[in-house]
Amino acid sequence: MNIRLLCLGALCLRSGTGYDIKKLFESAFSHFQSASFGSIYPALAQLERDGLVTHHNEPGARHPERKVFEVTEPGRTAFAESLASIPATEQMRSDYMGLVFFAHLLSTETLQAKLAEIEAFYQSELEYLVAIRDWPGQSPGIHFTIEQGIAVYRAKLAHLRSQGPSLLARHREAPTPPPDGLP
Amino acid sequence: MNIRLLCLGALCLRSGTGYDIKKLFESAFSHFQSASFGSIYPALAQLERDGLVTHHNEPGARHPERKVFEVTEPGRTAFAESLASIPATEQMRSDYMGLVFFAHLLSTETLQAKLAEIEAFYQSELEYLVAIRDWPGQSPGIHFTIEQGIAVYRAKLAHLRSQGPSLLARHREAPTPPPDGLP
DNA sequence: TCGAACATGTAAAAGGTTACATGATTAC
DNA sequence: GTAATCATGTAACCTTTTACATGTTCGA
């Protein structure tokens, strides 16, 4: 599921500008996909070339003009069809886990700072999801994704808070143990 | 943390071939980063150009020859330094969550199949991590990452098993509810 | 009036996947 | 003998990020 398809999906929920869609990526989509303007605007342009969305410029002479995009009927059909053919996969890329994997090469202070950094991130993501959890008008599917996000961030925070201190303690005692015994 | 840096890290743990490193990405690294041969071999070539690794061909005339890579002293230093400067971030790209977000556009059968698909994936990842959990010789950092993986997959499975059936039931009753009320 | 948010877009570069091409060795 | 695993590499392509460029509107 690339950015183009998710932009199309966003417009199936409600019409809006590229800027609006960016905000969606920073809120409702944030715990499963990110995207920058540099991928959103070209995606919208291509969707329009393919006839899956259209836009009309909003009245009022602002600059640049607000381009409100709207999905077309072929677009709506194409989205539903594409969706059904996408395998349910997941992939994580976690620099945090990479860092901790090689923690024996960091100073204790650095490691501690990294753990604090990721804890703050987890905390703010969790707070956001809890805040939107009971908004009215959510479909069961959307509610399900929010609940999953909450469950995952809670598990990550619980793990970090219970295991973090002992990781740091062991790290302080034995700064550079030669690791081995990999699968 | 790109593939190049992770390959360098892998060689800091133990020397090996590109093929060996691929297996590491499929096992010990699998729950936080994936990589294909098409990124690993060029990464090793570039690390060697930069003097961070060297290789020697293993005796015995097989084809193609086994190139055993080994980190150099500058490589070891460069890795430790790079590591300290990487922010502890995480990003998920979950087609599964994207799919469920738009579940109202899928048939109940399709949705059910997708949930079964991801459950099998979670299950096998969890089993793998539990199996390697108590291997001897792991550094505290490596152990920490495995524990986190276990905690996360358990939370995901628990969420899926407790909320999946009710999602499917509500989906069956109201096939295409108009969702709204997004943040 | 000043900074944050709104608003659109492009070009270059980075990063990675997929598919192809080739062939040996090992375990059953 | 035959299938799986071991083993290396390239090239074309795809996706996405980063950095730049520009200007407006709104609220404090």
Give an account of the 3D structure.
The structure is a homodimer of 183-residue chains. The first copy, chain A, is mostly helical and 183 residues long. The first copy, chain A, has 2 domains: 3-85, Orthogonal Bundle (Arc Repressor Mutant, subunit A); 95-170. Chain A is 61% helix and 8% strand. Chain A has 7 helices and 3 strands; from the N terminus they run H-H-H-E-E-H-E-H-H-H. Chain A has a two-stranded antiparallel ribbon. In chain A, helix 1 crosses helix 4 (73-84) and helix 6 runs antiparallel to helix 7 (140-173). The longest helix of chain A is centred in the last third of the chain and has 34 residues, at 140-173. The model of chain A has no long low-confidence stretch (mean pLDDT 94). Chains A and B meet through helix 1, helix 4, strand 3, helix 5 and helix 6 of A and helix 1, helix 4, strand 3, helix 5 and helix 6 of B. Strand 3 of chain A pairs antiparallel with strand 3 of chain B, so a sheet runs across the interface. The structure holds a DNA duplex (28 and 28 nucleotides).
Give a brief outline of the structure.
The structure is a homodimer of 183-residue chains. By secondary structure, chain A is mainly α.
Proportion of residues in β-strands of chain A? 5-15%
The CATH architecture of the largest domain in chain A comes to Orthogonal Bundle
Q: Structural class of the helix and strand makeup of chain A?
A: mainly alpha
Termini of chain A, distance in Å? 32 Å
* Biggest β-sheet strands, sense, barrel of chain A: 2 strands, antiparallel
CATH domain class name of the largest domain in chain A: Mainly Alpha
Instruction: Examine the coordinates and then state which fold CATH places here, giving the name of the CATH topology of the largest domain in chain A.
Output: Arc Repressor Mutant, subunit A
From the spread of the alpha carbons, the general shape of chain A counts as elongated
The radius of gyration over CA of chain A amounts to 21 Å
